[in-house]
Q: What sequence folds into this?
DNA sequence: GAAGCAGAATTACACATGTAATCGACAGGG
DNA sequence: CCCTGTCGATTACATGTGTAATTCTGCTTC
């Protein structure tokens, strides 16, 4: 699967959330703080099309864009990449890292424990 | 903290493992499968110096390079970034993801549970 | 002392990415 | 029917990254 750049990812998020959408709709939904012009969003859309992670269908003289890949799949791939690179593929090492950095609240811990317990059954 | 590119990260790994080292030493220790020439490694070293994540001291007419940032710190930052971007900052969501993808072996689960139990004491 | 070698510094060049502006076609309002 | 606004397509341009080659400079060896 093609790599999706950071900025492009913001566009994908919009379309994973709601699709299909026109370029203008996507632009309207991209987080404000990006400060992107419509032109910029259109560039992103073209590049994502070129990467094959979006498809478009015609709607009059506009296009409606929609993702061709599932968010979970992409997220899984990216997480896997990071875990491989930074933790030698060892998930427990990642969790230990987070723990050492106080990134885990008591609620997080409880939630994860419940989750793991369910896995074992 | 400056962002470190994928390739540059490979150089950092070498120096986190053992420092200080000369450019030639780093080149010798970079994973074979990168297939990098010494020149490429030197470019990486300059860029990392420019980013401030390496420092060098003179040793005769060579340099000895060493990291100025700790591996744990960088890894923590990168993991945080990914968790924020892809899981809305929610660690349990990441774990659920991994679980759903069968990325957790029984041993992993046991290890994580032990880890979490220790945290609560 | 000249020539070559070993290091760093400088330069190169293609592709990715962020961030648009411009161009050409067409549809709808006056 | 023509003008203008709206689309997608094409082009632009700076910076980052992968991957070096070339140059400069000083030590070593004849």
A:
């Amino acid at each position: 699967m093609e790599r999706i750049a950071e900025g492009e990812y913001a566009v994908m998020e919009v379309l994973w959330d709601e699709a299909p959408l026109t370029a203008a709709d996507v632009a309207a939904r991209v987080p404000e703080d990006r400060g992107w012009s419509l032109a910029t969003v259109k560039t992103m859309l073209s590049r994502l099309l070129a990467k094959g992670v979006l498809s478009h269908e015609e709607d009059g003289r506009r296009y409606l864009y929609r993702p061709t890949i599932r968010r979970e799949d992409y997220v899984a791939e990216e997480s896997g990449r990071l875990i491989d690179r930074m933790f030698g593929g060892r998930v427990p090492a990642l969790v230990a890292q987070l723990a050492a950095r106080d990134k885990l609240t008591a609620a997080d811990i409880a939630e994860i424990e419940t989750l793991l317990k369910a896995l074992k059954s």
Observations:
- Residues 71-87 of chain B form the longest helix (17 residues).
- The first strand of chain B starts at residue 54 and ends at 59.
- Chain B has a mean pLDDT of 96.
- DSSP finds six helices and two strands in chain B.
